[in-house]
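Figure 3 (text version): structure tokens given as input.
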């Protein structure tokens, strides 16, 4: 990964969560949304991250959704809108979720990431996902699992200081961390392993008598003594298991050849019929879910062996016959990738269920016959490469993505802004783009790579993004793009510059990339870039460059304070350089420590109008940093985290920041998150 050495330098020791204080988060999401979608009544939300699990409370109003590496989301209005819910949560994503049936304020989440992380494991919320605390940490991956591995026992209702709760809960852990069936007797606060054979499975509990059911690749098992002993009922892979409160004696499972029903609490099973279901695919059928409001309605996924080859089926007659689900993805901003579908039925509205349609939430109201985009508020674009606002037209903003090509708006300062999807790669499904810029609505450019963080080739469009020309110029992976404040025809991408509006490009042997410029309204205009570990400056539109100061590490980003005549340098650490004295000050120690003790920064920006206002960005990558964006009002001497903390109110925005820039017209801060989309934050009302 781009900052692998920085991440490897982090220890695995967990630090205590920051103390709670009452505050107000004023982050605003900047969803990728078209004008057409806005006219249809949507507020936007591009999704982009793989959805791994859903949970829904008994009212159907509180929902939780977990992505593999893009955090947790919740809905408090029955899935109409979604919002991130990661305050206090350290894992980058989630693998499984459970809401306490006796107290919807209590929930469990299983942390996940694309690789093993010591902050994964079990996390508990007692305030409807407004904040989270760790209860059982394990160095597990958990991503790409797609099943319900954690469950509360509704029959174990107890009264506690915070109201009623389910005392018993169970978790089938993952084999990469030792597996086992774990049990809690205090509502999820503490856990012990009670069985070792189980791993990578589904767990459900009889809602009335507490019988525990476990399904794994080795079969179906039941326990009548709260998990202390199990009896195997079915052999072979059982990749779907569901239990519903409205039919407590029923147990629904699926094997590779179809769905099965037990009406005696899992002692015996009979086939539901399964006409129309495929029975030969490998690994085949999984994720069976049954509607509590109408048990005749069932949904199931068919995994045909590859990540993007899936089938989705619904039944309206208890599983006797099945038909293919149809998807209306016309409101999706991104191309639809046919990933495995997960389902969550409304417990109160027959026919209503939620699923993922390929990186975004979908909903059905007719029992699964038709699903449609329902992703408002789920902003998960993997922002990659470095962007800058056009100094001549700040509304022009081109944002590149590591997985989802690029996107462009002409009205970046609007709320909401309208965006255009850019098919830079020409692959149809997405693409790996790094460093983009728009000279105007017709002429724009971006780097296109064949792989994550691979060498990118400069692509140029002269017709508003409809077609892209491959220049054949390969960048140096600086991933930088910028304009010239004194000449609208001059722009930069990695080590190349254009002086004729993108028609021709020339290499800059003494500059790897341009990050920023002197924005003094009464003059200035000098450009600032990097050459390896050196900060370099140009006063002639990038034709020549001279070194200003050399750092110990590679320069990742720069910001220039035109009033104080100081340069801020992000290398993983954060520095301030005073050219008049030649002094370099390490500001990293002024930054607050995040939940892994980090005081690092990979991007820095100043407010062009009030350059004493400085912003710094950081993302944990292997963990979710609790201080992703920090702000200073006094030129870097003191800092405050803008990342919401436990006790804060408002949206949980600006997470895992890759890049920060300030709109020169509105003075709003923009933060581009790694798998957490684009967010903005208002300027301080009375900066020092």
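Below: residues designed for each position.
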């Amino acid at each position: 990964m781009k900052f692998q050495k920085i991440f490897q330098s982090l220890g695995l020791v967990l630090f205590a969560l920051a103390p709670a204080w009452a505050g107000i988060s004023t982050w605003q999401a900047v969803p990728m949304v078209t004008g057409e979608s806005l006219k249809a009544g949507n507020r936007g939300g591009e999704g982009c991250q793989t959805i791994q699990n859903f949970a829904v409370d008994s009212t159907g109003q509180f929902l939780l959704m977990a992505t593999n590496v893009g955090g947790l989301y919740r809905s408090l209005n029955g899935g109409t809108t979604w919002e991130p819910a990661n305050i206090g949560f350290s894992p980058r994503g989630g693998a499984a979720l459970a809401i306490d049936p006796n107290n919807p304020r209590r929930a469990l989440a299983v942390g996940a990431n694309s690789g093993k992380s010591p902050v994964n494991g079990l996390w508990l919320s007692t305030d409807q996902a407004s904040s989270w605390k760790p209860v059982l940490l394990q160095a597990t991956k958990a991503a790409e699992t797609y099943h319900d591995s954690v469950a509360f026992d509704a029959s174990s209702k107890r009264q506690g200081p915070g109201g009623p709760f389910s005392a018993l809960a169970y978790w089938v852990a993952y084999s990469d961390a030792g597996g086992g069936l774990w049990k809690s007797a205090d509502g999820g606060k503490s856990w012990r392993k009670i069985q070792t054979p189980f791993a990578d499975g589904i767990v459900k509990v009889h809602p009335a008598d507490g019988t525990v059911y476990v399904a794994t690749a080795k079969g179906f098992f039941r326990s009548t003594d709260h998990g202390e002993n199990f009896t195997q009922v079915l052999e072979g892979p059982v990749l779907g298991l569901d239990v519903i409160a409205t039919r407590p004696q029923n147990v629904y499972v699926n094997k590779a050849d179809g769905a099965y029903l037990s009406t005696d609490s899992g002692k015996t099973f009979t086939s539901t019929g399964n006409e129309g279901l495929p029975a030969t695919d490998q690994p085949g059928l999984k994720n069976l879910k049954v509607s509590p409001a109408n048990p005749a309605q069932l949904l199931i996924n068919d995994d045909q062996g590859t990540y993007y080859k899936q089938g989705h089926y619904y039944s309206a007659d208890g599983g006797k016959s099945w038909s293919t689900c149809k998807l209306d993805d016309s409101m999706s901003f991104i191309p639809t990738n046919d990933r495995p579908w997960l389902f969550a039925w409304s417990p109160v509205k027959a026919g209503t269920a939620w699923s993922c349609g390929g990186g975004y939430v979908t909903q059905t109201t007719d029992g699964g016959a038709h699903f449609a985009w329902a992703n408002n508020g789920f902003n998960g674009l993997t922002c990659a490469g470095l962007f800058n606002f056009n100094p001549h037209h700040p509304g022009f903003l081109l944002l590149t993505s590591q997985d989802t090509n690029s996107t462009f708006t002409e009205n970046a300062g609007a709320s909401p802004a309208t965006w255009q999807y850019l098919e830079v790669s020409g692959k149809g499904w997405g693409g790996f783009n790094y460093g983009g810029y728009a000279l105007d609505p017709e002429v724009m450019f971006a780097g296109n790579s064949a792989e994550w963080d691979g060498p990118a080739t400069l692509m140029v469009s002269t017709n508003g993004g409809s077609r892209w020309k491959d220049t054949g110029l390969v960048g140096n992976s600086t991933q930088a793009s910028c304009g010239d404040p004194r000449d609208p025809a001059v722009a930069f991408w990695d080590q190349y510059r254009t002086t004729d509006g993108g028609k021709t490009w020339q290499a800059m042997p003494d500059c790897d990339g341009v990050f920023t410029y002197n924005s003094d309204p009464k003059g200035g205009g000098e450009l600032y870039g990097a050459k390896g570990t050196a900060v370099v400056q140009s006063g002639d539109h990038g034709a020549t460059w001279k070194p200003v100061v050399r750092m110990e590490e590679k320069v990742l980003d720069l910001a220039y304070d035109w009033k104080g005549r100081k340069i801020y340098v992000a290398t993983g650490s954060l520095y301030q350089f005073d050219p008049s004295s030649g002094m370099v000050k390490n500001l990293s120690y002024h930054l607050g420590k995040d939940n892994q003790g980090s005081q690092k920064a990979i991007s820095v920006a100043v407010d062009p109008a009030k350059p004493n206002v400085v912003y710094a960005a950081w993302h944990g990558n292997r963990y979710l940093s609790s201080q992703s964006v920090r702000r200073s009002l006094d030129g870097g001497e003191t800092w405050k985290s803008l990342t919401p903390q436990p006790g804060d109110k408002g949206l949980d925005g600006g997470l895992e920041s890759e890049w920060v820039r300030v709109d020169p017209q509105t003075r709003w801060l923009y933060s581009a998150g790694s798998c957490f989309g684009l967010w903005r934050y208002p300027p301080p009302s009375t900066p020092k």
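The chain has a mean pLDDT of 94.
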